[in-house]
TrEMBL record:
CDD domains assigned to the protein according to its UniProt record, in alphabetical order: ACD_sHsps-like (cd06464)
Protein name: SHSP domain-containing protein
Organism expressing this protein natively: Serendipita indica (strain DSM 11827) (Root endophyte fungus)
Classification via Gene3D superfamilies: 2.60.40.790
Assigned protein family: Belongs to the small heat shock protein (HSP20) family.
Domain SHSP: residue ranges: 1-84
Amino acid sequence: MNLDSQPSAYVLSTPLGPGFSSECITIAAKRGSILVIIADRWDSETDSHFEWKIHFDRDADMTKIQANFNQGLLKVTVPRIRTY
């Protein structure tokens, strides 16, 4: 998984193996600015389970997470809260 820390957001991206669909992916925000991502394929025994737990700084806006899964690439954007 790649994590790109940009001024306005954290952007995570990772390719998943063939056969994954958006229905195979669960994304959950937890207390303490923790993001949990699980990708499971029940029809395959190899390369079929991935799990990540990412801890963010306090500037992560965990209420506005966006995710996109397109052509085997999962991209998750966590906006940063502007501090003045």
